[in-house]
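Data availability excerpt. The first of two example chains:
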Amino acid sequence: MSIFDPAIHRVQRVLCFGAHPDDLDFGASGTVATWTAAGVEVQYCIMTDGDAGGFDARSTEEIIAMRHAEQRAAAALVGVDTVHFLGEADGFLEPNHRVMKQVVALIRGLRPDVVLVMHPERNWERIQRSHPDHMACGEAVTRAIYPAVENPFSYPELLEEGLAAYKLPWLWLYGAPSERENHRVDITEVFDLKLAALRQHLSQHPDVPAMEAYVRAQSVEQGTKAGFAPGALAEAFHVVAVNAADTIAGF
């Protein structure tokens, strides 16, 4: 049973992180669409430019411009107007302090109820989910959330910029190993939007029907695991309460 109850835990703002353009569309765009339809403000942050992805010969500058445009178009389809790009090199992302400081600044600036990010653990069931950039993205954000986001002594120059410390309520991780999944969202009504968002990343999908069939099969499987109505489609997450009612400093 999930520790997150949408009837109790109100969500008004969400900040979503992905390592590459299209990661969020695979992992969470259905859930994002349900949030934005309910009036939730959602912003994206993509850590790398995706400059190592694609199947045709283009310059690095052309690839970056194309993938930024694809991600902005995909985000718009699920109701996201703001997409931040950190500009790290595809394949070289590290959970270092340069990246973490930018994460802290974004979280303190938006002060979201939920931060959603890729899972930092390796998934041995499907190792493609565990691209090193994926794990680095998850690790950088998780390290930033605790303790730096809520510690005024971390990156003190951010205080001078007006970015005060902030206690984040919830961390949602996508692409989790199955044993970590503890919350599922019904995306049946918005599944077509998820597919439409994925179709914006045509540079990454040489076989679109196969991609769509895979995404549908995964969503059906998650709907079944959740015990939703037959045929329902779902996305799965590992939800962590960062600052719950019983949280005390350091524990």
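And the second chain:
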Amino acid sequence: MSDQARLSPGDRAPDFSLASDQGDEVNLYDLLQEGRKVIVYFYPAAMTPGCTKQACDFTDSLDALQGAGYTVVGISKDTTTKLAKFRERDGLTITLLADPELAVHRAYGAYGEKKLYGKVVEGVIRSTFVVDPDGTVELAQYNVKATGHVAKLRKDLGLPVAPA
């Protein structure tokens, strides 16, 4: 359906350096230096129902994911100001990153043609990636559902589905 490059397990994860809602610069390869795996997920827009559900699910699972050696970062095209409001409104504890130019979205194949209500449109493709400490994509999932995605991801990673 779309001709943008998609990542597959075994590919080198594109590095990025993006501003967080808390005012710091977050670099993928700096996170990997800590020897942890990084879950990078892309979502269309802060403070919308599906994206809120997904962000709250990641927040609810964060302790268990961190305990299993994962760092979680959520990336959207929103401004850092909007992301800060999103964090505050919903009590989010995950790292939220702003990619308003969509460069990182495109590097990961998380922006392009998709079907929306039966029509082909261009937009953010809700996607999740797990990156190994060596910078290799371990898992690449495109067109994920907002609801139930974190539980499915935990199952795919061999972790208990319910937060501990």
